[in-house]
Amino acid sequence: MKTIIHVVQHLSPGGLETMVLNMLSFSDPHYRVFICSMEGTSQHIVASWRQLLPFKHQIIGLNKPQGISLSTIKNLHAVFKDNQADIVHSHHIGPLLYASCALQRHQHLIKHIHTEHDAWHLNSYKHRFIHYIALLLSNPTVVADADFVRQKIRNIFKNYPIYTIKNGINPSRFTVGNKLHARDKLSLALPTGSIVIGNAARLETVKGQRHLIEALQLLPANFHLLLAGSGSTRSELQQLVYKYRLEHRVHFLGHVDDMPTFYQALDLFCLPSNNEGFPLSTLEAQACGIPCVANNVGGVSETLSTDSLLVNDNTAITLSDAIKSIPYHGIRHNARDFILKHNHAQTMTKAYEQLYFSGENI
């Protein structure tokens, strides 16, 4: 039986981490699959994210201290050896470097796959240098999760071969639902005739929620905004809400466990981010039949169906005009069909497994 070990920086709700969890869920039952988080203990990780509970025996936490940690390299080496890893699959730059170093100490051959989930961090010379060193150390097979990421990597590492496998979601979990029932489950007491816009992301400057609040004050009074997520800018965003007297129209939900219900409660999902990789949130919303308005950054354009709308900046006036232009009637089946065709997690997982074991008789 082949053993696959994913290496991530941390394992908490987020796009990259959800993608890895989907790969665990849809993996071939003939493979042993683990997720190794450099940060946190196994017990704390599982307790903090209940979706991990069915996989608790496949979660490994190394409890890495802050800063550079040689002990973490040693611990990773032990994880690979003790579990007789055939494939090590790293995600993002920290796990790439640590996995590359840990693999130097192995006697038997382990194939290293690395997925790059965004490209904007490669604007940093330091990150490019780390990436270059890691490529030299373990010569990983590199996968980009979007066409734009692949092109960016190719522009920097000229002749290094890059594959593209686009992220996928579980459309059996994210499906069409009853809008009013979903709003009841979220305990939303909204006036009749409300049009509900949603955003799900960390409350951080890079995610652009400020622009969405500023856009809301340009929209009619029946438009409401749901913000799912937590982060360092929450207080700043709340002050902006008070400034525009939008207290009854902006609803801070904090961390939401039941994300399908969140999307099903919406009329529109909006992603006004300043930077993105290949976001899962637009995929999840459209799988629930909800159209999107999204800023044209990173790989966002690759995630949208014809039912959704791409805008070329995230200013309040641009967002408000786009939001008003969307017809709010019925479920968008084209949006869901687009996800089923292009972004199913099962298809994504099979593509990776073919890459893991290409040319082998499994």
From TrEMBL:
GO terms for biological process: carbohydrate derivative metabolic process. Residues 13-173 form the Glycosyltransferase subfamily 4-like N-terminal domain. One of its GO terms (molecular function) is glycosyltransferase activity. Keywords: Transferase. It comes from the Bacteria. Signal peptide: none annotated. Residues 187-326 form the Glycosyl transferase family domain. InterPro entries: Glyco_trans_1, Glyco_trans_4-like_N. This is Glycosyl transferase. It comes from Photobacterium aquimaris.
